[in-house]
Amino acid sequence: MATPAPHDEQARFDAVIAADEKIEPRDWMPEKYRRNLVRQISQHAHSEVVGQLPEGNWITRAPSLRRKAILLAKVQDEAGHGLYLYSAAETLGTSREEMLDDLLEGRAKYASIFNYPTLSWADVGAIGWLVDGAAIVNQISLCRTSYGPYARAMVRICKEESFHQRQGYEIMQTLAQGSPEQQAMAQDALDRWWWPTLMMFGPHDADSAHTQQSMQWKIKRQSNDELRQKFVDQTVEQAARIGLTIPDPELRWNEARGHYDFGEIDWDEFQRVLGGNGPCNRSRMRDRRRAHEDGAWVREAMLAHAEKHNRRAAGAAA
Amino acid sequence: MSDAHFTYVLRLGDNALVLGQRLSEWCGHSPFLEEDIAMANTALDLIGRARMLYSHAGRLEGRGRDEDALAYLRDEREFGNFLMCELPNGDYGFTLVRQYLLDVYHRHLYAALTESRDDELAAIAAKAVKEAAYHARRSGDWVLRLGDGTAESNARCQAALDELWGYTAELFTPDAVDSAMLEAGVAPDLATLRTRWEADVLARLAEAGLTVPADDWQAEGGRAGRHTEHMGRLLAELQFVQRAYPGQQW
Ligand SMILES: [Fe+2]
Ligand SMILES: [Fe+2]
């Protein structure tokens, strides 16, 4: 069969997008669509992987065995999300090794939120409540993304994320009802994590380099500002319910808009952390590189053993 | 119920907690993503096992201590885990060789404990033995891969084995608590356990090209609460929040 002319392929692609159907791995797609997806999905995968570090920082110090087990299970889930997402990205023809190299050599990004330190047990609560909460808002929207494998990975991941969010909120609730020291710990964590969480949604729509094209391709289904607003609206009420104060003097209900108004993000800080100068950028990357380098002999041994094993099997068969 | 019964169950809990604590340190730092998941998963099984054993021990003791009181509010000298569990992780080879030696031990131990006259312990063992069998298969596969893999991986695992072997004697040396529990039908005979353990371990080590070191030194004292210098730091980290803010809900 003759290969259809590119314009036919493009027309078919456009029609699938217009009809809100899914693009699948074997379908033709514009090269830029493919590259854009690889960038977004691998960045998402890297975030899950690097995200193990700040929470992992508290596994050995979790204040009860129940909390330790829940946190271990959560961090294990996040690593699992990394795996699904790398697999989704691999369907686009980029190997996990290439993506990993891009991360370790600083060419790929991961969520800047993980460049902030976890300083108290309450930070584990704040991450679950706020960071997983923000991730859900973003990922629910991505369940309708146009690339099939990515959409399906999101559906699976969203279920676990909402579990994480509830557990994080429960930690905050317990602390907020606890001793004055515990209450202060919870408030301090909210004070430190609130603004970085709002930054997770990215620049304002007007300033976002990728938004417009991604929206046309239906990779992104809602804009950064829409998603951020949705998160603020739901979280303000959750904070109030447990007696914690969101650190934003400009936060107030706007009857006319039917949404909360909120203050401006410190975009200098946003750029600084994105550019590699957040409090933990260096240590996160150092940890990832060290794990990779220290593990090199293990991966080599695994391959060497598999080869020997195959040779022995072939020898036995001959 | 006797003090020995409480102590016996408590020490099983200590082994699970302390080893689980060590494994959880790998989280996010292991050689590749699948191993991060597997390490967390094994640690999770061990923490779950510790919780069941501590809850049971607390009920046997009857003084109102729950799993967290036993995990967080005892000092080093009151912990009765094997010294091997508390040793720092070392490289991935050290962690996996240790894990293998203990996984095989636990598989046979918990298989025997399913027959314990302590019904609650037998029920815990029925769950633990399935996990331990899975853990032993996994760590046993790794010992084979790493022992057989490259000259470097073989040397690293041999060094780990040389370091760890002296700590295995403690696993099979009965003290007064073990003897009393054997007599009461609560615990199995450690000599039988040793035979089973050796049959598995010696075969696997040989297959992996690893040499069993001479029995020229033996470390012991864990079950009597005489630990290595690493134990105090492990507990300081594990217990920090509970100790800094006593009597709170978390
Ligand atoms: Fe996740
Ligand atoms: Fe999550």
Describe the protein in words.
The complex is a heterodimer of chains A (318) and B (250). Chain A is mostly helical. The mean pLDDT of chain A is 95. The radius of gyration of chain A is 22 Å and the shape is globular. In chain A, a hairpin with a 4-residue loop joins strand 1 and strand 2. A two-stranded antiparallel ribbon of chain A has the order 1-2. Chain B has a single domain, classed as Ferritin. In chain B, 67% of the residues lie in helices and 0% in strands. Chain B has ten helices and no strands. The model of chain B has no long low-confidence stretch (mean pLDDT 97). Bound molecules: fe (ii) ion (FE2) (2 copies). One fe (ii) ion binds next to helix 7 of chain A.
Largest interface: A-B, 51 and 49 residues
Largest β sheet strand count, sense and barrel closure of chain A: 2 strands, antiparallel
The distinct ligands, each listed once, are: fe (ii) ion
The quaternary state of the protein chains shown equals heterodimer
The domain count of chain B comes to: 1
Instruction: Estimate the mean pLDDT confidence of chain B.
Output: 97
Report a brief summary of the structure.
The complex is a heterodimer of chains A (318) and B (250). Chain A is 68% helix and 2% strand.
Question: Can you lay out the helices and strands and say which pair or pack?
Answer:
The complex is a heterodimer of chains A (318) and B (250).
Chain A: H1 6-18, H2 31-50, H3 52-56, H4 65-90, H5 96-104, H6 121-142, H7 148-176, H8 180-199, H9 211-216, H10 224-241, E1 252-254, E2 259-261, H11 267-277, H12 281-294, H13 296-317
Helix pairs in contact in A: 2-4, 4-7, 6-7, 6-8, 6-10
Chain B: H1 3-24, H2 33-61, H3 67-72, H4 83-86, H5 92-113, H6 119-148, H7 151-164, H8 176-183, H9 190-207, H10 230-244
Helix pairs in contact in B: 1-2, 1-8, 2-6, 5-6, 5-7, 5-9, 6-7
The complex binds fe (ii) ion (FE2) (2 copies).
One fe (ii) ion is lined by residues 48, 78, 81, 157, 161 of chain A.
